Amino acid sequence: MSARAGGALLVAGTTSDAGKSVVTAGICRWLARQGVKVAPFKAQNMSLNSFVTADGAEIGRAQAMQAAACGLEPVADMNPILLKPGSDRRSQVVVMGRPLADVDAMEYGAYKDRLRRVAVEALERLRAEYDAVICEGAGSPAEINLRKGDIANMGLARAAGLPVIVVGDIDRGGVFASLYGTVALLDADDQRLISGFVINKFRGAMELLRPGLDMITELAGRPVLGVLPWVEGNWVDVEDSLALRTDPVPAGPAYGAQTLRVAVVRLPRISNFTDLDALACEPGVVVRFVTTPAELDDADLVVLPGTRATVSDLRWLRERGLAEAVAARAERGLPVLGVCGGYQMLARRIRDDVESGAGEVPGLGLLPAEVEFGPEKILGRPVGTAYGARVAAYEIHHGVVAVDGGAEPFLDGCRAGSVWGTTWHGAMENDEFRRAFLSEVAALAGRAYTPAEPGVSFAELRERRLDALGDLVERHLDTGALLRLLEEGPPAGLPPLPPGGTMGA
Prior knowledge:
Layout: E1 7-13, H1 20-33, E2 38-41, E3 44-46, E4 50-52, E5 58-60, H2 61-70, E6 81-85, E7 90-95, E8 98-104, H3 105-108, H4 112-129, E9 132-136, H5 154-160, E10 164-169, H6 175-184, H7 188-191, E11 194-202, H8 206-220, E12 224-229, E13 260-265, E14 270-271, H9 277-281, E15 285-290, E16 301-304, E17 306-307, H10 310-319, H11 322-331, E18 336-339, H12 341-345, E19 349-352, E20 359-362, E21 369-380, E22 383-386, E23 389-392, E24 395-403, E25 408-410, E26 413-416, E27 419-422, H13 431-445, H14 458-476, H15 479-488
Helix pairs in contact: 1-2, 1-14, 6-8
């Protein structure tokens, strides 16, 4: 089984969160298991979940996960353009792993020609090195108001001659209309690249779905390449907060005395919330995302996570009454953890002339530290020790924290009483450290929880979940058709659908 050198295809979706990232990861893992030298690619990613490569470049966290599915160390070419929203209108533009500018939606247009070249060149380098490159689109290819300057979906597919498969989320409803409408809204040249459909998140009777599969194939002139079943809890480093669960969680009495309850404040610009994935995997630990003071009442640990907008989200924290609730917990000696932006909020003072331009603002004052935002972003893969355990992590921040004294060191941050703060992301993925930290949290909270022995290996768990995605692709998709697309490109003679249009570049 082989794919010709440089073969590539694009996994697009009818909507955000349709499953593009996990389908891409699943195809990557399946190909890697067949001995194909494969790499992931996403030309332009808008996400606040990011990762730092070994050489200090910042890319989307989803592409780092997809690289793991391929058995690769991630590199900047896998995600050459990353947009990190700081507000509803402005984003930081990260190009080849380094910040380029902060722009609004209209200003971004001035960069499009340059960025299109960057994206195409990065893809060309990967295609020259690997047998196959599985590209992930962004949002939907049928966002016709954005098509003219598109560099992530059909703009990329046209520039590189990529066959495109479109993933539809049946759990949202209206999947057949979404699939057909996605193709119909494209112009004829774009339509010629749409080579098949994948239906995702199906739970039901295939006998009832089968007529619809036959009808969409006839109507759209493209085959359905498979139906992926709904699999509860098979997350892998989700891309953005759209995928965060917001279901109500029962209050304390629903849990036993040995259950450890972690409340993560869902900040408006929450970033790198994948830091908490490893906690959620521990037996006896329940992690929930919260937005009100009342939801902190029964928590054993409150986490202030990373954020792309520290000062703005700190103001939101105060407006919601959460700042007062967090401070009250600390006064009672109950555990509070701040990570990156959350750590900065715990300081006495924040000076920010860079990210928000707000100047000096008071922090929560729960740690003896001050924060100064610098123009240069700090990117790194630090290694240290805590609780006698080795900790490997990564850091991404403009804010530099200076500890005044009177605090214990903690992962290049500090600790005062029951309050910890660190700039390091991913620390909880270190198994020995995580279990030691949770043991101390439980002791401070008066909880009978003890970590399971021998405990969870988070790295092994991630590998099992990536294997499960590869299994889904192998069992439920037409893998022969996928290989033909990689080997031969888009099939000839795909019919155009009315009404079509003239949106293409």
